[in-house]
Amino acid sequence: MRATPLSLMLKFPLGILRVLAKELVGPVAQPEASAASRESPRLASVPYWQLGVLAALTLWVYWSTLTHLVGQWWTDPNFSHGFFVPLFSAFVIWQERDRLARLTPQPAWSGLAVIALGLVELMVGQMGAELFLARSSLLLLLAGIVILFFGWNTLRALFFPWAFLLLMIPIPSIIFNQITFPLQLLASRVSASVLPLFGVPCFRDGNVINLSSMALEVAEACSGIRSLMSLVTLAIIYGYLVDRRAWVRWALALASVPIAVIANSVRIIGTGLLVQYWDAEKAEGYFHASWGWIIFVISLLMLYATHFLIRLLWPDKTMPGAGKPEKIRS
User: Fold this and answer.
1) Over the stretch 14-29, which tens digit does the pLDDT of each residue have?
2) Which end of the chain is more exposed for a tag (fewer CB within 10 A), N or C?
3) What gap in Å lies between CA 250 and CA 95, rounded to an integer?
4) Number of helices and strands (H, E) in the chain?
5) Which of 53-62, 136-145, 280-289, 295-304 has the lowest mean pLDDT?
6) Please, are residues 164 and 85 in contact by the beta-carbon 8 Å criterion?
7) What is the distance between the alpha carbons of residues 280 and 273, in angstroms, rounded to a whole number?
8) What is the mean pLDDT of residues 187-198?
9) CA-CA distance, 215 to 222, in Å (whole number)?
10) Angle formed at CA 190 by CA 187 and CA 192, multiple of 5 degrees
11) Is the CB of residue 150 less than 8 Å from the CB of residue 103?
């Protein structure tokens, strides 16, 4: 069996960690540093070239894991939003660059333990063919690098963009299946309750809705899991960009779940109406394929309406002119 870089590294973990600590970080800042050095940022003292070497090694070790992850974003519509997650995290870090520059680096040796834990998780994920473990270990490794070079204070400042990266990793299949089937049953139950209100007689058997002319099966692709994963990600991005209140951002992220369920039920109800009052073949053809985009637009409108209602009931008083009528100048 060909030895991998990871297996060679794990043969002598203690020696490797000691070498990395001495070569990459150098001596940790001592408490007897001068008052001037404690008051002013010391980002210039961070060994960026050594940080670049460690980043290159990380990319080398994770190359196959990352290429497989990007390939799944490209081929799996359930997780195509993964392309935007690292871009948004980078955007958040860029937006906070001034605040981050004012932080005084406080390198901590505990970052080595976090890095070691991430490498162990990567090894377990590769040996057990568990993609989620192997991919999520990258986040742990990145956290360890930040702690090692900049300190826990910097990791706390970067917690939101770092934690947001978790959304780019597809959830494990066992959890995915546990979420998908209940969504199928919920969507079919809601649709079967609403369709008779529009004069469409139906009978529900599990995730199958029997109409007078045909049966509609709420398959896995129609469960709403695609719109749910994408909408949760988009709701977090939207909340960060348009509202500074933390509780509003949490409310929008949580509201995206029922919005996705309602929007997907609208899709099934619309398909049932097309089958009943127009043409069953056309309902299964172009309109069925285009429903995904239509429902996603409806979800965005519902998300915006939710935020508009929140701002109407609880205006942001920290914004200039909040709660005051705007004056029209002639």
Assistant:
1) 343 343 344 444 444 4
2) C
3) 20
4) 16, 3
5) 280-289
6) yes
7) 10
8) 85
9) 14
10) 105
11) yes
Q: Return the closest-CA partner of residue 321 out of 306, 308, 330, 311.
A: 311
Alpha-carbon span 295 to 191, nearest angstrom: 15
Distance separating alpha carbons of residues 52 and 50, to the nearest angstrom = 5
Q: Which amino acid is at 262?
A: I
From the list 90, 264, 297, 119, the residue with the least C-alpha distance to 194 is: 264
**Is pLDDT at 88 greater than 90 in this prediction?**
yes
Q: What are the backbone dihedrals phi and psi of residue 183, each rounded to the nearest 5 degrees, phi first?
A: -65, -40
Per cent of the chain over pLDDT 70 is 75
- Cβ-in-10-Å burial (0-12, 13-18, 19+) of 159 comes to exposed
In this prediction the pTM is 0.72
The whole-angstrom separation of Cα 202 and Cα 21 is 68
CB distance 238 to 256 below 8 Å: no
C-alpha dist (Å) from residue 174 to 79, 111, 169, 179: 16, 32, 14, 9
Share of the chain above pLDDT 90, in %: 22
Q: Is 252 exposed, middle or buried (0-12, 13-18, 19+ CB in 10 A)?
A: buried
pLDDT in tens, 63-73: 888 998 998 88
User: pLDDT confidence of 31, banded at 50, 70, 90?
Assistant: very low
Residue 221 corresponds to which tokens in the numbers above?
């692709």
Instruction: Report d(CA 232, CA 253) in Å as an integer.
Output: 6
Q: Which residues pair with 205 in a beta bridge?
A: 208
pLDDT digits (tens, 9 = 90+) for 120-135: 999 988 887 788 888 9
Task: Give the model's pLDDT for residue 198.
Answer: 85
Q: State how far the Cα of 256 lies from the Cα of 268, in Å rounded to an integer.
A: 19
Contacts of 112 (CB under 8 A, 6+ apart): 17, 20, 21, 144, 148
